[in-house]
């Protein structure tokens, strides 16, 4: 029995060691934090990418987790100019999108039904930004039809329908078709909708209806359809493919189902598969968007920018080494509080072994550990109990032992100031006036590790010095003494360089001639000392241009001015100061209260004074006044709330418990509605300052007084109505009822309300006249036909259409006048909706997209059939335009003359004539903008086609990889032998060959080791059983 327990414990420990560790994952052009050869199960490690690269996750920083010897995903760094999966309005990719696309990649799109491309049909990736195609709405299309009561529309999930599309209507349960069952989109207007009559009225109240449906009927998107059964069909029966916003749909094998998949970072909610049942799609899923994180709340070491819906992560707070949890809920990031959190060390088995050894030595009073055969049954039972307790308590004990107490520091202060600091936390410390840290810096930093501080903080006199070369260290260990004329070399610290190029120290006549390390001109020296203040970033001897330092003051002091300092061109922009917070020179006075103790003449910042409210009053919050920087923060005494002396009574309800004679302010009493009634809101009565706020039990079949937008009731409204009652309304002036239906009808507690639509006034078209007499008002959907005056002709439609109270008017132009079609400005959108055509002299204002700004005017102007368009340029790194030009005007490409030449490539004029599309020969890589424009009669930046790298076929196996070329910036892995592999990159036209090595050798070795451990365990157990 004893031997079995020992062997079982050894098996658990050894299997755990073999199965759970992960090897260091390969990562090209990046680095791991921390960097180890082996990582334990459950550990999370971060990884970043070198300059010019970024993680293939869409974030600035990545994280992977080791789980049972396998990483959650393989880290990968991709070119920083690559783009992630794009999204274009009213369009979807023509084929299944990938996670990312290299610079200059083209991704073809397909417009949704009812839309057509306005220009190019492909998205172009340029320097990590997509230039997306634009899908504009086709003419003569219809919006989704208006809702009709008691009717279900059998149409696909789309918001625009083309001219000639037909929709089938199905009546709701207990209603019968009274007319046509189809409606048609004709030139932007739907034909009249069919009516559904009450079937009880048509067939009589004795009619019987089937209610049993098959299991598939639950999947129908419109559950009110009266069907006997539902049989799944092929997806072709539903004609139009459903649309999944922020995702895509793919047909599964067999043609009976569709699969739904979301774009990266979007979360699929709902069924992942869609079926076609009785010509209708089953429930469609939704791709919920991710949460965009507020980067100002985090430390710079955590560059994640998005969280998926429902995802939760832990980040370091900005400033001190504290953490906070962040969760994505319904597209909103929920931020937890910042709190300290130490790491529990996973050393249970090692600690248990040490405890077991000490127990055995103590039992036998020896210096060696006895064998299991020397133990009695009673001692063995005691050891097992103690061992189990040690395993349970070990993590908590280790966490306490590894924490650090606040170190002693004379004449100084800590930030933050705590009694206990957790393992691995870093804290800063500063010294009082006239003193400095013994580190040759004016603020210091120490680290808690395994219960010990990295060094003992100490404040010394500021006149103290030590013999050394500032900002340098000796290349060899220093000796105690040096002979005359003896020399040795120093090496400058990073960001410093030797003055006059001399790096040698020379002993001359008992004195040292020392080199000097001066700071590089683009770096800033440590900022000036701020007394009673602290910089929360780690200390450095030099700071890069643009570096920002943040300050905090000691207790009792406050920042005067900005709490930050920025390095600009070798100089600090400002120097904050910490000033003492002011005392309170006058006595505090609280209305309707008196002080609990005698008052003093003056109080320091932070002092408090307790008060007592007068009779009949009570404190609203705290009972103490506090001095804050010379001003009293006073408590407030409010009138004490009265109790309720009467018992509460609720109509059509009874109390859930026995009532008392009296209730205090804020007390509640729960009630139960009588049969046939339900609570309208809460089920409890509440005492509020001597008055009961009572719940209400209502008949669920009754309706409260109705309200109709833009309408008034014909008579006085009652407080409630029975099911079947109706109220007549009249529309406000300038509105009329949709379908001339003025009745609001109560149906089982729900109102069926009429709709008042806004009327259009009399239309007027310049240079045109109506074909018939005009009315003073028109309903939505009405249209008026016009004829152009003599010498004019229509551009586009010849009728005016009333839409939601506004007219869409036709255009009559002079026969010899040239008009402009609707303008398009790259990286911008119009302020108002565009029309199809514009006469000469007409203008349209635009707004630049986010990250862009105008160069010059923001208005497009039509001149002789040609638009003079504004230009939106990307913002530079400091907020300004990359090429500021107040007079920049985008012109058609023909104004720049001969098209530019691209070596190893060519250009193609895009639709609209305002841009040229650049493309390279096969295997050549486009570097620079993918489109060229004519601005002020000059071409914008011309891209370059970089040549590929030709591979040395002697270094790779022909049978595995027939590739002979790599594109610029491309990296691929090839077999260099039948077992080993080699990574090859193309950099500036030259192939760079990595080391030929075995990639899977570690995995094979680990599998063999696990197999051997398993054989040993089986042998041991067999020996014990025998």
TrEMBL record:
Disulphide-bonded residues: 142-185, 524-567, 584-627, 644-687, 703-746
Signal sequence coordinates: 1-17
Keyword Nucleotide-binding attributed: no
Subcellular location: Virion
GO biological process: complement activation
MF annotations from Gene Ontology: complement component C3b binding
Stored InterPro entries: ComplSys_Reg/VirEntry_Med, Sushi/SCR/CCP_sf, Sushi_SCR_CCP_dom
Cellular component aspect of the GO annotation: extracellular space
Boundaries of every Sushi domain copy: 20-79, 81-137, 140-198, 236-289, 457-519, 522-580, 582-639, 642-699, 701-757, 758-814, 818-874, 894-947
Pfam family, one: Sushi
Record keywords, A-Z: Disulfide bond, Signal, Sushi
Gene3D superfamilies in the record: Complement Module, domain 1
PANTHER family, alphabetized: COMPLEMENT FACTOR H-RELATED
This protein's name: Complement factor H
Originating species: Ictalurus punctatus
Upper lineage: Eukaryota, Metazoa, Chordata, Craniata, Vertebrata
Recorded name of the encoding gene: LOC108267476
